[in-house]
Description:
Shape: elongated
Strand content: 35-45%
Number of helices: 5
Protein name: DUF177 domain-containing protein
Number of strands: 10
Organism: Lentibacillus populi
Number of domains: 2
Order of helices and strands: EHEEEEEHEEHHEEH
Largest sheet: 6 strands, mixed
Amino acid sequence: xxxxxxxxxxxxxxxxxxxxxxxDVSELEAMNNDIRKIEPVHVFGECTLQGEQLxxxxxxxxxxxxxxxxxxxxxxxxxxxxxxxVFTLSDYYGEDEEENEIHPIDGEMLDLTPYIKENILLExxxxxxxxxANAIESAPMKGVGWDFISKENTEKPVDPRLKKLESLxxxxxxxx
Length: 176
């Protein structure tokens, strides 16, 4: 989602610059986080010019697929994020601007996509739970290097090499 700074300056002369687009943020799936799948998100809002600062106020709407904390099944998680981002047109960029999260603009184009992704990552919940009653049946029971063990099948199979020793224990029980 890129904007020309000169276009924004011309548009914000009398009224705020409005935008409404669908943005592909599928790169978030490849990152090391819990997002299994994310559809393109709907981003809409406006930009105002105050002195040397461009103030973007926007909303991000979409749905991401996250793993259930209990069963690891896919859980659709709809979200709506309201965000504000401030950019500066000034050549001076110091510690005050960095502390207040005022972003510098490099060149004539402003790319809002990284800030959209950042806001989505900040809103990923710590854990989600599936409301589906059949979630336990559709949950994975085996994976690479792990097996699900329930209370019903906690009995471990006896190693065949130790099977003969078991007969010695049975003999000791009979003698007593």
